[in-house]
Amino acid sequence: MGEKQDLRYLADLLNCVANDVKTIHLNSYGERFDDIHEISGNLHWRLAEDYDRVGEKCLELGLAVNNPNTAAQNIGYAAIPAQLYSYKDGLQIIKKLLDMLIQYLYVFCEAYKADLGLANFLQERIEYYQNESKFKDYARLVLEAI
């Protein structure tokens, strides 16, 4: 993939992860419904904002942003199933999604290090999603069980 193609890949990936988190948000149930519903709702909003920001960067580079409806197909992404998600199950999936996204953000941060504005944005997103996954979700899943 060329550099410009890569950025559209990241936009598609952010869209797909946002949609998976929205699926958890819409299908939350159980004893801690309010918690998982709020966590996934807030995270979906952040992912959608980041998707928009990366899409705007694509436009800045003279690239047409892919149709959001084809994002999963474009990158071979397997969406999570439409089913009910408990607090624990939803958080576990969110953690996996964020960990995968963080890996890609590192790759793109390195690929775009010459574009300081984009590299800084990607680094900020890495820090944000690491905090969500490695601290908050860890605390929610592990420390609560202690």
Mind explaining what this structure looks like?
- The protein has 146 residues and is mainly alpha-helical.
- The protein has a single domain (3-145), classed as Up-down Bundle (Ferritin), CATH 1.20.1260.
- It is 74% helix and 0% strand.
- The protein has helices spanning 3-26, 33-60, 71-75, 87-111, 116-141.
- The chain starts with a helix and ends in a 5-residue tail after the last helix.
- The model is unreliable at 1-5 (pLDDT under 50).
In short:
74% of the residues lie in helices and 0% in strands. The protein is mainly alpha-helical and 146 residues long.
Give the topology, please:
Blueprint: H1 3-26, H2 33-60, H3 71-75, H4 87-111, H5 116-141
Helix pairs in contact: 1-2, 1-4, 2-4, 4-5
List keywords for this structure.
single chain, 146 residues, mainly alpha, Ferritin, 5 helices, globular, disordered N terminus
CATH H-level superfamily: Ferritin, core subunit, four-helix bundle
Radius of gyration: 16 Å
| Residue windows where pLDDT falls under 50 for at least 5 positions | 1-5
**Percent helix among the residues?**
over 70%
Structural domain count: 1
CATH topology category name: Ferritin
Task: Work out the strand percent.
Answer: under 5%
Structural class: mainly alpha
Terminal Cα span:
46 Å
Query: What is the CATH-assigned architecture?
Result: Up-down Bundle
Along the chain, the helix and strand elements come as: HHHHH
- By CATH reckoning, the class would read Mainly Alpha
Oligomer: single chain
What is the mean predicted local confidence, pLDDT? 91
Give a quick account of the main beta sheet: strands, pairing sense, barrel closure: none
